[in-house]
Amino acid sequence: MHNGVSSFNHFVHELSVDSDTSSSDYSSGEESDGVLPASPSSQSSRLSWASASANPESHWTEWITFILWWLIFPVRILIWIPQYFLRLFSKRSARAPSSPRRNLRSPRPRLSKTMSSKDHDVPNRATDRRRGVIEDLHLAIEICIEAIFDFFHRATRMILSPSEAFAIMSSWFSSRSNSSEESHDDVSDDVNVQTATLGDTDPSLTERPTRLYNSMNTDTRTCKDVITELGYPYEAIRVVTSDGYVLLLERLPRRDARKAVYLQHGILDSSMGWVSNGVVGSPAFAAYDQGYDVYLGNFRGLVSRDHVNKNISSKEYWRYSINEHGTEDIPAMIEKIHEIKTSELKLSQPTIDEEINQEEPYKLCAVCHSLGGAGILMYVITRKIKEKPHRLSRLILLSPAGFHEDSNLIFTIVEYIFLFVSPVLACIVPAFYIPTRFFRMLLNKLARDFHNYPALGGLVQTLMSYVVGGDSSNWVGVLGTPHYNMNDMPAVSFGVAKHLAQIKHTGKFKMFDYGSRTANMEVYGSPEPLDLGESYEFIDVPVDLVAGKKDKVIRPSMVRKHYKVMRDAGVDVSFNEFEYAHLDFTFSHREELLTYVMSRLLLVEVTPSQQRQSSQKGMKLKKKKKEA
């Protein structure tokens, strides 16, 4: 297909032009001679007419062509109808500013946009050329139409020219063996590409292996890719919990920093939420720029199901609730942070008994969103009950979960249905997730369609907002983030969903109820699960609660209930509200929120003893440099 015209249409047009020019040449005859020089097309038509007049058999060729043209005419009409609508879609997509064709025609603007990618949101990059389902169908229909036209074009040529058809078939048979041998030698998944990075100390080209396998045209970037693309350091830490789950703790390292921050995501989220807004609007980058050693925690519950036991069944893997988030995942990650910080600061690790009465060599704050807030509260309370250090200096909780009795009607209906069918559903559905790569890829491509077609995206946004009670979060934008890709995706276990339903049903922030007094006695030592709301007196660090006035998932009244219970328990707690929806705390660029969070983090200062230790370490380093 050239310039929007199929090869078959071009062929039929040439036939009609040849016949018209032939008839005009025959009628005008000598009158046109000497007036204008003949064009190549007219010369060829005259030669064809001369040969036709010399050979009477060419008249039969013209009749055959004429009959074939009228036989194919209904097919052309049927194919023209979808082609007409495809042109309408292509005209609309060609007007879009982020069209891939415009990027190819104007490389300079594309370069400037790429160089300034730090100032833009990661999901809406100018270099994002992913196709959605509609665009894939558009492309497939175009290829199909082109193949049909090409088939009729070649068939007509072979019918009209048997000698040419015989020559083509003979060339196919003669070159088949050679082409098959060359194809086996040329196929390779890994390609060595010479690359050079602007600003490198060594400007010479280096080779790196590049895998050319992403034929599905989906976004498979990870948190590491986003961080390193923006020029920040990255470190991945493998954490194993006591029950065998393998977690990914990601880090933006500042090894000499004595202040660190731990960021924990919420439900159906991952560490990508803390970096998805680019440099300007992401909490992780803002904290790193302020001199913090940044750690990004990831709960268990990804589709990849990473576990020490590689043969673990799906039912066994998904057998956990919010209890395991607060008593297994967070303790394992914070203990790993403590191990790393003490070793990097070259301090001997004291015993647990000494640590309870001794200040840490660093200050660690936690910023948690939604389910992460409930998990960190459970962690602090259970650690204090067990008389173990929690190693935290301050908690900043963004719309934390825990109290949910004030919610919309849809959540209430789902709660009653879920608790009613949970005994049967637990045996059938261990978790709520998309199981296959194909359907995850389909969701990823549909998310691109929601972005590329505003009417469709607006409809989906409205429907999802109604489902969650009118919350105005950018639900469509969240689906387009890279951590909802075909390789891996956050999920919700049946136990976590049931635990949330229990919390909403009882109106209390309690640990998981195993359903019988005997089972609860084995786990908690009491017939009833621990009521965390009544145990807020164990919280011995300052807590900052932040609510969203437009949040319909966790309403401000529920965050205010956290505040009242903590204040009555004697906790050093503050409360603030912003005009945000539930997902705006992580997935939207909110300058006011970032300023507030950083101001609360800066309230935690390094103690004088730690400052003296750091100054002594700096003096030692200076002496070593002078001696060297």
TrEMBL record:
Region Disordered, annotated ranges: 22-43, 96-127
Coiled-coil ranges per UniProt: none
Biased composition (Basic and acidic residues): 116-127
Magnesium listed as a keyword: no
InterPro entries xrefs: AB_hydrolase_fold, AB_hydrolase_lipase
Transmembrane segments: 63-86, 409-434
Keyword Transferase applies: no
Designated name of the protein: Uncharacterized protein LOC108817536 isoform X2
UniProt KW keywords: Membrane, Transmembrane, Transmembrane helix
Composition-biased stretches (Low complexity): 34-43
GO biological process, one term: lipid metabolic process
Source species of the chain: Raphanus sativus
Domain Partial AB-hydrolase lipase positions: 224-278
Ranges of Basic residues composition bias in the record: 102-111
